[in-house]
Amino acid sequence: MIIWTGWGILSIIILAISIAVGMGESEQMDSIRFFMAIIIGAMINWFIGKKFNSNEKIRIVRDEETGERLKLQNKHTIFWMNMETFSFVIIAIGLLIIFVRQDNIV
Q1: Which of 4, 10, 24, 76 is the least buried, fewest Cβ under 10 Å from its Cβ?
Q2: Who's near 69: CB < 8 A, 6+ residues apart?
Q3: pLDDT tens, 9-19?
Q4: What are the residue boundaries of the structural domains of the chain, listed by start?
Q5: Which pLDDT score, from 0 to 100, does residue 1 have?
Q6: For residue 35, what are the contacts with CB-CB under 8 A and spacing of at least 6?
Q7: Distance between CA 28 and CA 33 in Å, rounded?
C-alpha cells in the first residue's frame, strides 16, 4: 500500500520512469546503469519536491469563532516524508539492491 498526500505519488512515478528510461530497449540492466537511473530519478524528485513544498505558498488565516491562527501550506508527502526527503530513501534502496545483487539488476 502506498500512502501519499498531494502530489507525493509523483515520487513513485518519477522513479519508475527513470528506471524505464535507464533500461531502454534492453531486457537487462547492469549495476551502473541502474544506479545512474536511480540517482537521476532521485535528483528530479528532489527538485520537484522542493518546488511543490516551498514556503512561498504559506497562508495564515484566523478562525473567526475561536480567534485561532492557522497556517495553511501545501504538503506533498509519500510514506509520511516530504518528496525531497524521499529522494534519500530512493538512493538508499538503490544502493541496497546493488550490494545485494552484484550481477545484472533487472
Answers
A1: 24
A2: 60, 61, 62, 63
A3: 999 999 999 98
A4: 4-100
A5: 78
A6: 94, 95, 98
A7: 10
* Overall size of the chain counted in residues: 106
Question: What's the Cα-to-Cα distance from 18 to each of 12, 13, 90, rounded to whole Å?
Answer: 10, 9, 12
pLDDT tens sequence across 48-64: 999 988 877 788 889 88
By 3-state DSSP, what share of the chain in percent is helix, strand and coil, each rounded to 5?
55, 15, 35
Nearest to 8 by CA among 39, 54, 49, 51: 49
Candidate from 21-25, 61-65, 88-92 with smallest mean pLDDT: 21-25
Residue 15 · residue 2 · CB < 8 Å? no
33 and 22 Cβ atoms separated by less than 8 Å: yes
What is the pTM assigned to this prediction?
A: 0.78
Residue 18 confidence (pLDDT): 92
Amino acid identity of 40?
I
